[in-house]
Automatic annotation (TrEMBL):
It comes from Terrapene triunguis (Three-toed box turtle). Residues 44-213 form the Exocyst complex component EXOC6/Sec15 N-terminal domain. This is Exocyst complex component. The gene is EXOC6. Keywords: Exocytosis, Transport. It holds the Pfam family EXOC6_Sec15_N. GO terms for cellular component: exocyst; plasma membrane. Belongs to the SEC15 family. InterPro entries: EXOC6/Sec15, EXOC6/Sec15_C, EXOC6/Sec15_C_dom1, EXOC6_Sec15_N, EXOC6PINT-1/Sec15/Tip20_C_dom2. GO terms for biological process: Golgi to plasma membrane transport; intracellular protein transport; vesicle tethering involved in exocytosis. Component of the exocyst complex involved in the docking of exocytic vesicles with fusion sites on the plasma membrane. Residues 407-755 form the Exocyst complex subunit EXOC6/Sec15 C-terminal domain.
Amino acid sequence: MAESLPEHERILQEIESTDTACVGPTLRSVYDDQPNAHQRFMEKLDACIRNHDREIEKMCNFHHQGFVDAITELLKVRADAGKLKVQVTDTNRRLQDAGKEVIAQTEEIIRCRIQQRNITTVVEKLQLCLPVLEMYSKLKEQMNVKRYYSALKTMEQLENMYLPRVSQYRFCQIMIENLPKLREEIKEISMSDLKDFLESIRKHSDKIGETAMKQAQQQKTFNTALQKQNNVNYGRNMYVINGRVPEPKYEITSKRTLEEEDEHEEEVLTAHDLVDFSPVYRCLHIYSVLGDGETFENYYRKQRRKQARLVLQPQSSMHETVEGYRRYFSQIVGFFVVEDHILHVTQGLVTRAYTDELWNMALSKIIAVLRTHSSYCTDPDLVLELKNLIVVFADTLQGYGFPVNRLFDLLFEIRDQYNETLLKKWAGLFRDIFEADNYSPIPVANEEEYKIVISKFPFQDPELDKQFFPKKLPMSQSVPQIYIQVKEFIYASLKFSESLHRSSTEIDDMLRKSTNLLLTRTLSSCLQNLIKKPHIGLTELVQIIINTTHLEQACKYLEDFITNITNISQETVHTARLYGLSTFKDARHAAEGEIYTKLNQKIDEFIQLADYDWTMSEPAGRASGYLMDLINFLRSTFQVFTHLPGKVAQTACMSACQHLSTSLMQMLLDSELKQISMGAVQQFNLDVIQCELFASSEPVPGFHGDTLQLAFIDLRQLLDLFMVWDWSTYLADYGQPTSKYLRVNPSTALTLLEKMKDTSKKNNIFAQFRKNDRDKQKLIETVVKQLRSLVNGMSQHT
C-alpha cells in the first residue's frame, strides 16, 4: 500500500506534465498494476483535483481586485472602442466609396494588360504563321496557273523552312497532309501534259521533218549555186556533138535559186518554233525535283521507242507515189530532229548513246523498207525522185550528226535497180523505134535536111558529100534515133549519179557500166529479137547490117560524150571502154546468119515448087520454070547486097549456091523417089546448067575465077558421069587425086544408078539394050556390084 502511493503520484505528475496525445500509455499502466489500483488511483486523483481547486481559489482571491479593475477599465475602453468602430466604419465606407472607381480602373488596366499580352502573343504567332499561309496561298496560285515547277519549289520551302516553325497548329498538319497529294497531282498533270506533247510531236513530225529537209535542200542548192558561180570565171570544158551542147547542170537553177534567196529571205524555222517543248522541260524538272527523274527518263524513252516503231512502219502503198516516200522520210526526220533538240537542251533525258542506238535501229529498218518498196518501183522517174529524197533525207540527218553512210550504200543498190528500170524503159523505146522504121536509106532533099540528120548522128562520108541533092544516107531513120536515145539514157543515168558524194571518175565509170548494159543487153536483145521477127525480110536484114555498122562507128563518139559530160580529161580516164563494138558485131553476125537462113528458106520454097516428071523419056529442052524464078529472085536479092560489106555479100551468095546445090542433090537422092529416067536426068542437067551460068555471071563481085561455080561441082560431076555413061573411067580412076569424077561419092552414084535401073525394068528405057545388046545390061549390073563393093570398102575403112 505504501508502495503504490508514490507510484500514483508519479503517474499524476506524468499526466500533468505530458501532452494529452501521449497520456494513453500512462493510463494503461494504471490498469496494469495491482487489483483495486484503479480505485486507489481515482481517489488519489480526486484528492489532487481538490488540491488544485483550493490553489485556484486562493489565486483567484489574490487577483480578484485586479480583475475588477481590469473589467472597469475594459468597460471604459468598450465605449471608446464603439466610437472608434463607428469612425472606422465611416472611414471604411468613405474609403470603399472612393476605391470603387480605382478598382474599376485597375481591373480595366489588368484586362487591357492581359489583352495587350495576348495581342502581342498573337502577333508573334501570326508573324510565324503568315509566311506559311502566304507560301501556301502562293502554292495554290501556282497550281491554278499551272506553274508546277515553281509550285514544287514552294512546297520544298514550306516543308523545310516554314512548316517546322508552326508545326503545333492544326492547320499546319492539314497542310502537311495535303502536300504529298499536291505532289501526286502535279506528277499526274505533268505526265498528262507530256502525253499531250508526245501526241503533238507525233502529229507534227512530218511537218518538222518537211521543214528540216526543205532547209537542208535550200542550203545545199544555195551552196551549189555559189560554187557554180565561182567556177564560171574558170571556164568550162564544153563538148559539142553534132550541133548539141550539153547544157551545164544547175546553171539556170542556180541563178534562179540565188535570186529567190535574195528576194525571199524567209525566217529559218526550227523544231522549237514548230513545237512547244515546255511540257517536256517542265515534266523533266518536276520529276527531277521529286527525285523520280529516272522513272521519267525511262517512260519518255519507252514512249519514244514506240513512236519510232510507228514512224518507221510504212504504208503498204508507199511505193506508188513519191508523196508516200516524202511523208515517210519527213516523219522520220521530224522524229530525230526532235530527239536531237531534246539531246541538246536537256541533260540526261536523252543521251548520245541512246540516240545512236535508236538511229541504228531505225536505219536498219529504213534500209529494209526502202529495199523492199523500191523493188516494186517500175517507173525510173519515180526511182529518181526516190533517190533525190534519200539524198536530201541523208544530208538532213547528217547535218544533225547522224551517220548516213549506209544510206549512200543503199543508193548504189537502188542505182542498179534504177538502171534496170531505165533499161526496161529504153527497151520499149528501142522496140518502138524499130517498129516505126521503114528500113530504107534516109532521103535528104537539100542541105538543111542533111544538117538536121548529121546534127543528130555523127555521120561522115566524103564520097556522099560530093554528090548532089537529093541523095540518100546509107542508114535508116532508126540509127539517129537510137543514137539520140542512147545519149538520153546517159543523161538519165547521170541524174542518178549526182549528189552521191562520188568523184567524177567514179561517176564516169558508173555511166560507162550502165551504158555498156544498155548496149550489150537491152539494145543487143532488141536487135536480136528484131532480127528473129518473121516479118523482117532480106531487105530489112540488109539494112539492119548497114545500121549496126554505122552505130558501131558511133561508139567512139559516145565514149567522148561520156568523158566530157563528166569533165574527165582523157589523160586520167582509166575506166572500162564501151562494149558497143561487140554488141553491134554480134547483132550484125546474127543478121548475117538470118540472111543466110532466110535465103535458104526462100530457096527451099522455090524448090518445093519443083514438079519434075522423073519418068519422062525426053527433056523439055529448056530449064524448069521454078528454077528460072529462083535465079531471078537471087539476082534481084544480091543487087540489094551492094551496100553490104563485100565478105557478107560473097558469103551470102556462096551460102545460097551451096544450099541450092545441096537441095538439088537431095532431090535426086530422095528416098521417096524410086525411079528416075534418063530424060529426067537430062532435064535436071539443064537446070544445073542454069545454076552454073548464074554462078559464072558473078552476081556478087569479088569472087576469083570459078570459085562460085565450085558450089555445083558435085552435081556437075555426078550428072556428067550419068550423061556420058563413063563408068569405066570413074571406076578406073576412083581414089586418084586427078580423077575426073573425084567429087562423086560411090554411094551417091549407086543410089542414083539403082533408081535408073528400076526405071529401065518398068519403062523399057533399056529395052533396046536388052534386045540389041544384052551385054549392056550385064555391064550395068557389074557396075552396081563394083559400086557396092566400093561402098562396103568405104564403110569397113571407116
